[in-house]
UniProtKB/TrEMBL annotation:
UniProt protein name: Porphobilinogen deaminase
Keyword Transferase tagged: yes
Subunit structure: Monomer.
Cofactor binding comment, as recorded: Binds 1 dipyrromethane group covalently.
Cofactor(s) required, per the database record: dipyrromethane
EC number: 2.5.1.61
Reactions accelerated catalytically: 4 porphobilinogen + H2O = hydroxymethylbilane + 4 NH4(+)
Lineage summary: Bacteria, Bacillati, Actinomycetota, Actinomycetes, Micrococcales
Species name: Arthrobacter bambusae
Any further remark recorded for this protein: The porphobilinogen subunits are added to the dipyrromethane group.
Top-rank lineage group of the source organism: Bacteria
Length: 332
C-alpha cells in the first residue's frame, strides 16, 4: 500500500508535507508519494483577503480527497475554514511548533527601531492591524507571494538573491512580517530580526500547527464509536496526533467560529495547556489599528468539548466588548 499525500506545490507546503509524509511512513511502515494539487490561491493574484482569505488554498485539496486523487492532505491549520467539510475529518494535529509572528527587517532592526514612515509588508489583515496598533507611524503594505518572494522585498536579508531595488518585486520594503513556523520549517530563521511576543501580536488561530485531513471513513476510530477505521493508515495518523495541540487549536478555532469570522478577519487567538488548565487569549482589531478588544479565560475542562466551550466564552466576552463594531468579522 502506497499512501498518496496531497499538497500544494509551494516550497513551504512541499517542505512541511514531506516532513509529515516521512513521519507517517516511519510510523506506519508504508511507502508514501506526494500528489501536487494546484489551488485557486496559487493561481489567482491580488489581495488574499479579497480572494476569500486563506481558505482558497484548501478547497482543491479537499476536492482531491473526495475524488480519491489522494488519501491524505496536509494543511497549515490556520488556513482551514472552521466549518466542517462533509465526508472529511481532521485525522491528526501533530505537535505544534513556534506560534509567533516575526519581523524580518533590514539592518536587523526591531519594530521599535524602525524609523517613522518605514514600509512593512504583510498579506494578513490581522498582522496589519496589530502592527498599526503598535506603530501607527509606519506604513503597512499588502503583499502577496511565497516566503522567498516576501523575504526578497527586504534588502540585505540572508539568502536573498539580489540587492537591486525593483518596486513591488525586490528590496523595496524596510521589513516584512511572517510566521516563525514557516521560516523554521524552511531553515530561514536567520532572516528574523524580532520574534513578536503574544502581548504585541497574537497569532492566527491554529498558527504553527498542521492539520492532517482524510476521508472520514479512513480517520482513526474513536473509543466507543463504529465510525472511522483501525487500519494501518488510521493507526499511523493517530500516532502523529498531539492531544495538547488539538485542545489548543480547538479553543482558538471556536473563537473564530462563534465570532462567525472568516480567515481574513483581524482576529488573533492563542491557547496553551499548562498543568491541569487550558488558557486562551484572543483579540479583535480594527484594521486601521485604532481600536482593539482583548480577552482571556481558562478552563480545567481538558476535552475537545471543554476547549470548544472555552473558545465560545472568550468570543462572547469579545462581542460584549464591541468586537463586531470595530472589525469586519465576516471577512472571508
Amino acid at each position: 500500500m502506497t499512501v498518496r499525500i496531497g499538497t500544494r506545490a509551494s516550497k513551504l507546503a512541499l517542505t512541511q508535507t514531506q516532513q509529515t509524509a516521512d513521519k507517517l511512513s516511519a510510523v506506519g511502515g508504508f511507502p508514501v508519494e506526494l500528489v501536487h494539487i494546484k489551488t485557486e490561491g496559487d493561481v489567482k493574484t491580488g489581495s488574499l483577503s479579497q480572494m476569500g482569505g486563506t481558505g482558497v488554498f484548501v478547497a482543491a485539496l479537499r476536492d482531491a480527497l473526495l475524488a480519491d486523487t489522494c488519501d491524505v492532505a496536509v494543511h497549515s491549520l490556520k488556513d482551514l475554514p472552521t466549518g466542517a467539510a462533509l465526508g472529511l475529518s481532521i485525522a491528526a494535529t501533530p505537535q505544534r511548533v513556534d506560534v509567533r509572528d516575526v519581523l524580518c527587517a533590514r539592518d536587523g532592526m526591531t519594530l521599535s527601531e524602525l524609523p517613522g514612515g518605514a514600509k512593512v509588508g504583510t498579506g494578513s489583515p490581522r498582522r496589519a492591524a496589530q502592527l498599526r496598533a503598535a506603530r501607527p507611524d509606519i506604513e503597512v503594505l499588502d503583499i502577496r507571494g511565497n516566503v522567498d518572494t516576501r523575504l526578497g522585498r527586504v534588502p540585505g536579508l540572508p539568502g536573498n538573491i539580489t540587492d537591486e531595488v525593483v518596486p513591488g518585486k525586490s528590496c523595496d520594503l524596510d521589513a516584512v512580517v511572517l510566521a516563525a513556523a514557516g521560516l523554521e520549517r524552511m531553515g530561514r530563521l536567520d532572516t528574523v530580526s524580532e520574534f513578536f511576543e503574544t502581548n504585541v501580536m497574537l497569532p492566527a488561530p491554529g498558527q504553527g500547527a498542521l492539520a492532517i485531513e482524510c476521508r472520514t471513513e479512513d480517520a482513526p476510530r474513536q473509543s466507543g464509536s463504529t465510525a472511522g477505521s483501525n487500519d494501518v493508515l488510521a493507526q499511523a495518523l493517530a500516532a502523529l496526533n498531539d492531544d495538547d495541540t488539538r485542545l489548543a487549536v480547538t479553543a482558538e478555532r471556536a473563537v473564530l467560529a462563534r465570532l462567525e469570522a472568516g480567515c481574513a478577519a483581524p482576529v488573533g487567538a492563542y491557547a496553551f495547556r499548562k498543568g491541569s488548565m487550558l488558557y486562551l487569549e484572543a483579540v479583535v482589531c480594527a484594521v486601521d489599528g485604532t481600536k482593539t478588544v482583548r480577552e482571556k479565560k481558562a478552563t480545567d475542562g481538558l476535552t475537545e468539548v471543554g476547549a470548544t466551550l472555552l473558545g465560545i466564552e472568550v468570543a462572547e466576552l469579545l462581542l460584549a466588548a464591541g468586537a463586531a463594531e470595530i472589525a469586519d468579522l465576516a471577512a472571508s
